[in-house]
Design a protein that fits this description.
single chain; about 425 residues; mainly alpha; 3 domains; 3-stranded mixed sheet; elongated; Prenyl_trans_a; repeat; transferase
Amino acid sequence: MGQESCSQEDCFDLLNQFEHVLESDPLIDEVGFIHPSLFTILDKEAGSSSEEASTSFWNQDHKLGISTDILIQLCKVAKHAFLTALKEYKRHENASSEFLTENISSGVSCPTLESKVMKHSQALLLLSSDFGTAWNARKLILSKQNQPYGFTEELRLSRLVLSNFSKSEPTWSHRRWIIKMISQSFSTPQEIITKESELVESIGERSKMNYRAWYHRCWLVSYMTIEQVLQELNKCKRWAGLHVADSSCFHYRRRLMLRVLEPLKVKGSNDNDKTEAHKIWMEELDWNKELVIRYLGREALWLHRRFLSLTWLMYFCGNQSSETGECIVMNEEIGIFVDNEIYLLQSSMTFPDNKFEDFQAQALHASVYMLWLTKNIPELWRMLEEKLGTEKLKCVLNTVDQERPSLLLHQIDIFAAKHNNDC
């Protein structure tokens, strides 16, 4: 059957076939759209007979393929069937609320109508995941039933939808709603949170820069225990080290690390908590430095270092002014930290060949990072001049001026005024 229109009977027959496949194999864990020419190849690989095979659906080993030739017709008929079922369900609900159930001509029970809405909406969402009305209808019925099994099955369905539409915001939003409902009506099983985190990581492997998935993972942190947070930090470290250009992963690490700091904000917090948090920060700073040196010109690494530096100065350097939002006052511990950062700047500014963009980007990000640091530590200007010298400091400013001139408006005024006074 091609893309040309089919009869209403044929279209409904397609929908019935599709829904039958879904019902007959409840363990389907992946769905996708495939060209009809691939059906024969897939059948040969699976060792099945091509004579008995369907030309519309391919289902083997809990994988479901839908022919691209029938997508338009199937989506239209699924939408029609869903909206019809939803209309009938709402009419039944309205009549029931007015004690007029006996006047309903169809005589169909509410559970039957709910089943029809759920069945047709499932088919529709697997074809068009952004159809918000279908998700909302499922929310309505699930919240009314309020059964753990229903929510568990809904997690399975939305995961199946994500196998084909990994960046579908309505689908991710629906998963968050399910978890909220589970946590409100029942206890939130920590294994669900763990599996959700693993799901995002697996999707991140297939779908690069998937901000919606990583936002979902960040949202999960609020449901994690401190033990889970520490486990997540260790588990995602290797992934982050292999995907240094993916800022979403480092944003997730920052969310986890902020969660570690939450107990420290409570009065009477345990000193052991602060010691453990300090250890985590120092290890993260050292690891970040290794990545910065190994992978040149990766802005995500330098942005992560900004976060690590600022939070370390605020919580672990014993500087009260940082907690009030004022400029940080230099002390011995901060002096050692700044010396190390200046050394990192010097090594980043030294490159063998200007023609390589990675070396240029490394110098730029290091310079911008150091200028950003001066906003929080004013005395850093003096230390930079002492360590680098005037010419080298001008080189740092020129590097930034070529790419990010707006960042220098304030710093250049200070730098120029200081040297005019010296002259």
